[in-house]
Amino acid sequence: LVLPVESRSQLAVQEEGLELLRSIQGPVAPVVVIGPYRSGKSFTLNQLLGVPCDKGFGVGHTRETETKGIWLWGTPQPRKQQQQQQEAGGEIVYVDTEGFESTGKSNSYDDRIFALSALLSSLLVYNLPETIRESDVAKLSFAVELAQGFYEHDLGSKVCVRPGSMLWLIQRDFLQGQSADQLVQAVLRPVPNPQHDAGLEALNQVRSSLSALARNSTGFSLRQPHLDRTRLCELADADLDPGYVQQRERLKATVQALARPKVVNGRWLSGAELAGLVSKMVAALNEQEIPTGASLLAAFNRDVLARCAANYTAALAALPLPVDDDQLGAMLKSLQIGRQRAADTRAELVKELDRALQARNQAASNTQCSELENNCESLLDEMQGMRLPSLHKFEAAHRRCAAAFAARCRGPAKQQQAERLDKAWARASKAFGKDYNDRLFTGLVVASLAAACVFRFLLRVQLLEGASWAAFLFLEIYPKVRAQRVSMYDTKGWALTVRLWELVV
User: Fold this and answer.
1) CA end-to-end span of the chain, whole Å?
2) What is the pLDDT of residue 79?
3) Cα–Cα distance between 359 and 406 in angstroms, integer?
4) For residue 126, what are the β-bridge partners?
5) CB 94, CB 31: distance < 8 Å
6) CA–CA distance, 376 with 413 (Å, rounded to integer)
7) Dihedral angle over CA of 382, 387, 392, 395, nearest 10
8) What pLDDT sits at residue 285?
9) Going by DSSP bridges, is the β-strand pair 123-129/91-97 parallel, antiparallel, or unpaired?
10) Sequence-separated (6 or more) residues with CB below 8 Å from residue 501
11) Per-residue b/e over 274-299, b at no fewer than 16 CB within 10 Å?
12) Nearest to 454 by CA among 444, 442, 468
């Protein structure tokens, strides 16, 4: 009936679908299934029709939506005789729709599909996985209001559209407690709001817009047919959960009972009249710039927000950055934007300024703290090459650098850069410690050998020469003896040697 155009935000009516509707001479009762993509709409329709997947509506098992646009079942189904005795006869047309909230589509495209489904149907089946969420109610309210608005605008304010029935179909229902029908009634009931909370008032406005639909709403739940959902199309009824099969048969009867001819201005529509209505409404939907829940305020106040944001951004540009997050928050709280009744606009503007200012503060903080951290790393690298290694000087240089970093690094990047500095210090300290001990040991070996030569050939003091040779032999032999137990660098004697060396340098 309807396919998306390439832009994926507008709809194109298909002549083949219109011809099918025009072929129905009497009243027509469209049963339209809507819901999120990958929620089992097409499979459920095939189950209602009693046809396998390869002969019915397309069923997919990938992450991409299978159904595109709005599709009709090619063979209208007659309404049951007991219904025809109470009302006009007619035929049921089953309608499959593209699931909303899939990727790669604009919100306005989903809204057009949803609104067209609401105005097309005499029974709207809202197919939902597992439970009803507040976002599901809000999206339905927006689509119903949009459809009714187009009825009034394009067909005249005196048009009277009888509210259709709505079936809230909860798939894979495993939750305990309320029945599906009780859940629907509870969801559509106004929320108590004795304190006149603004958020609750908004929720009740959504429910108010659905008041007519709520009176004609029915809840129904289906358990999961089989654990392996990718094989559902291959399984016979005998392989499915018996409880699901029983529920499915009751669902068929419920749909048949709720499907009534589409009525506008007190009279039912024929297939040809419904086809003309669809063409007219698709054209109207495509012509309108449809706002979405996320963009209503921004679209309405775009120019005002842009001017205000530009003025305040210019003023905030003079602020010295970076600053810490608590100071940044205080700056934003001090802004006086708009009057009280413009609270939503003010909040939106503050949010935009907050994002812009935080981005600038983050960049300034990154630049400053990164520079300080790099300076500290460079200093530690420089201290590694001291001619006379000194542990005291190395640690003192780190303390001075860390103090300068703590005093001058500010803003959101401080913690991250401080962690980098700590890791750099740990690496440098470990490398310096090993190099320091090796260089001190080598220096002692060379010094003892040099002293032995001096006292033998120049000063000729046998006692000191012997002591020098003893020290040389000790330094050569002792580390090899201790190597299998504890490193010489971990002994008390070596610690004393280090303290004496630090006193000298």
Assistant:
1) 91
2) 81
3) 22
4) 34, 168
5) yes
6) 16
7) 10
8) 78
9) unpaired
10) 440
11) bbebbeebbebbeebebbeeeeeeee
12) 468
